[in-house]
Amino acid sequence: MLEIREINIGYGDVQIIYGVSLQVGKGEVISLVGSNGAGKTTMMKTISGLLKPFSGEIIFDECRLDVLRPAKIVELGVSQVPEGRKLFGSLSVEINLEMGAIRKQARRNNKANMAKVFDLFPVLAERKRQLAGTLSGGEQQMLAIGRGLMSEPLLMILDEPSLGLAPFLVKAIFDIVIRIRKQGTTILLVEQNLVRALKISDRGYILETGRIVQSGKGTELLLDESIKRKYLGI
Description:
Blueprint: E1 2-11, E2 14-24, E3 29-33, H1 40-47, E4 55-60, E5 63-64, H2 70-76, E6 78-81, H3 93-98, H4 104-108, H5 110-120, H6 122-126, H7 137-149, E7 155-159, H8 167-182, E8 186-191, H9 194-199, E9 203-208, E10 211-217, H10 218-223, H11 225-232
Parallel strand pairs: 3-8, 3-9, 6-7, 7-8
Antiparallel strand pairs: 1-2, 1-4, 4-5, 9-10
C-alpha cells in the first residue's frame, strides 16, 4: 500500500533523513521506532506532504505522494494523527470530530462514522459537547485518533500516540490500535515506546539519526540482543 524509496529529507541545507526505504502492506501494522531526534516525525510530515524530500519517491496505492499537496494526500486516504494531538481546544469534541471528515465520501457518511468513533471511545460520546481543551491527556489522544478515523482512512499514521500518557492509558491506546487494525485500517505507527509498538506490529523499522539500521518482524526485533542492549538496557 505504501512504499518509500530512498528518500532524503531535510530543512533548508540541513539533512535529517538519509536514503530511507520502507514498505507498508495492506492490512498491516508497521512500526517506525527510534529515540527522540531520530527523524521519525520528519518522515511522517513528508509522507503527509508537509515537507518535500530532497530526493526519492513515496508511492501510495500506485500514486506518488511526494509531488502532491497535503489536501490531495488526505483525499487519497492517508490520515495522520500528529504528535501532540493538535486539537482545537476551544471547540467541542463533536466539532473536532466533524472537522476530521475531510474526504468527500467521509462527509457523506459523517453520522455513521461518528457513531463508529463513539463505539470505539464511549467516553467521547459522553463528552461530545465538552470543549476539547478540558479533556484529560488520554481523552485528548482518543479524540485525536477519532478525528483521524472520521476521514475513513485507508492508511492511518499515528505519530507518538503514547507520548506523555500514564502507563495504564498507554496500554489502552495500543489496545485501540489493535481494534482499528481489525476493522481493516492499515497503520503506520511511529513510536519511542519500542516494546509496546513492536509487540503489536507485523514488522518494524529501527531509525537512528536519520537512517534505518535494522528491520524485521516485530517479535523478532524484540528478541535481538543488540536492540535489548541499546534500547531496553538488558
